[in-house]
């Protein structure tokens, strides 16, 4: 059965600073299962980029293989996109980013795509601090191949067949922190009030911004005993606090008492406010975040929210001193500046 999305939208839909409505940020009709958490994530990305007033053609969407990697089809239909092979999205994202630093890169992956076949690729994208938002839509199973446990499935978590997972889970948030990611967060697909500000902050961050989003699989991993199902996640959520994102164009005002919030100014002048629920978290300290994740896990709770941010992050372009212009805009004069320039380079190496 095929579906056609109607072109009509209400003529009085709100517009952003560019004059776009949310319709300009939509994609194709989703073919995922009804109720899939991935669709909620797509909607959050649409809302965040609409509110940030980013033109769709400024965004490049990249993905690998899996239910999660299908989702870029369902948002930002007028943006650039590349669907790579299983686990190889980080390499494609790195290459594209090196070729054109002016684009905004959104990488969408899954727990199998990242934590199994793509783990090696993921680690190097993190350590190189590629300037991108990297989203993992984490449901703890392989939905396209009938629900086998993935590497993020918790030990003892029950599959649809009723068999407990015998292996310890890979916690991608902890891995990202240990590898040096400069922005690390975790959220839940059913919590758009937390998720949308986190996506805004991740897109505005200069460097590798990682968000692990628990996104229940309603077909294969939403049963009693699963630790990635809607019921379990809602009952075991704990948050670092409320996150708010203030673009630089707005007047920066605060309404909290000293000592109850953390304010971080990003490269472009935007501000992230973390209204702390747990004051023991220092979002500038990796060890603080890692400790808190373990403490909450010991209480059988899933810690969500902004966990770590380096406001002074230097991305890969700054680290290796690449061209300030996209490669496609370099002229023959830029690429072949002549013998005099070559001579100066040689002299500097003597």
Overall strand count: 13
The CATH topology assignment is: Rossmann fold
Strand content: 15-25%
Uncertain residue segments: 251-259
Short description:
The protein has about 350 residues and is α/β, with parallel strands linked by helices.
Features:
single chain, 350 residues, alpha/beta, Rossmann fold, 8-stranded mixed sheet, 3-stranded antiparallel sheet, globular
Explain what you see:
The protein is α/β, with parallel strands linked by helices and 350 residues long. The protein has a single domain, classed as Thiamin diphosphate (ThDP)-binding fold, Pyr/PP domains (Rossmann fold, 3-Layer(aba) Sandwich). The protein is 30% helix and 19% strand. The protein contains twelve helices and 13 strands. The strands form three sheets. The protein has an eight-stranded mixed beta sheet with strand order 2-1-3-4-8-7-13-9, sandwiched between helices. The protein has a three-stranded antiparallel beta sheet with strand order 10-12-11. The longest helix has 15 residues, at 37-51.
Helix and strand layout, with pairings?
Elements lengths: L36 H15 L7 E5 L3 H4 L9 E4 L5 H11 L4 E7 H5 L3 H9 L4 E7 L2 E2 L5 E2 L22 H8 L3 E6 L3 H13 L3 E7 L15 H7 E3 L1 E6 L14 E5 L5 E6 L9 H13 L3 E8 L6 H5 L11 H4 L3 H10 L2
Parallel strand pairs: 1-2, 1-3, 3-4, 4-8, 7-8, 9-13
Antiparallel strand pairs: 5-6, 7-13, 10-12, 11-12
Helix pairs in contact: 1-7, 3-5
């Amino acid at each position: 059965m095929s579906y056609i999305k109607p072109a009509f939208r209400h003529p009085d839909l709100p517009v952003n600073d560019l004059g776009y409505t949310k319709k300009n940020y939509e994609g194709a009709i989703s073919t995922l299962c009804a109720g899939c958490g991935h669709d909620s994530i797509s909607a959050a990305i649409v809302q965040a980029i609409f509110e940030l007033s980013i033109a769709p053609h400024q965004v490049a969407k990249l993905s690998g293989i899996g239910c999660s990697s299908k989702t870029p089809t369902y948002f930002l239909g007028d943006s650039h996109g590349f669907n790579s092979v299983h686990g190889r999205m980080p390499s494609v994202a790195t290459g594209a980013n090196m070729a054109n630093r002016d684009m905004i890169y959104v990488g969408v992956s899954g727990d199998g795509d990242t934590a199994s076949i793509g783990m090696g690729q993921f680690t190097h994208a993190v350590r190189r601090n590629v300037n991108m938002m990297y989203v993992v839509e984490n449901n703890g199973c392989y939905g396209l191949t009938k629900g086998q446990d993935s590497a993020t499935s918790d030990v003892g978590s029950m599959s649809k067949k009723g068999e407990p997972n015998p292996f310890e889970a890979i916690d991608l948030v902890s891995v990202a922190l240990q590898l040096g990611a400069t922005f690390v967060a975790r959220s839940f697909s059913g919590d758009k009030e937390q998720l949308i500000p986190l996506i805004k902050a991740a897109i505005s961050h200069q460097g590798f911004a990682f968000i692990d989003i628990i996104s229940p699989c309603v077909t294969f991993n939403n049963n009693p005993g699963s630790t990635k199902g809607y019921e379990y996640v809602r009952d075991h959520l704990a948050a670092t606090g409320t996150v708010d994102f203030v673009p630089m164009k707005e007047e920066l005002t605060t309404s909290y008492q000293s000592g109850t919030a953390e304010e971080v100014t990003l490269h472009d002048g935007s501000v992230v406010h973390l209204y702390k629920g747990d004051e023991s978290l220092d979002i500038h300290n990796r060890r603080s975040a890692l400790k808190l994740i373990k403490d909450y896990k010991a209480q059988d709770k899933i810690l969500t929210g902004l966990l770590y941010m380096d406001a002074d992050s230097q991305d890969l372009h700054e680290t290796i001193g690449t061209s300030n212009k996209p490669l496609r805009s370099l002229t023959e004069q830029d690429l072949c500046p002549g013998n005099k320039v070559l001579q100066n380079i040689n002299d500097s190496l003597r």
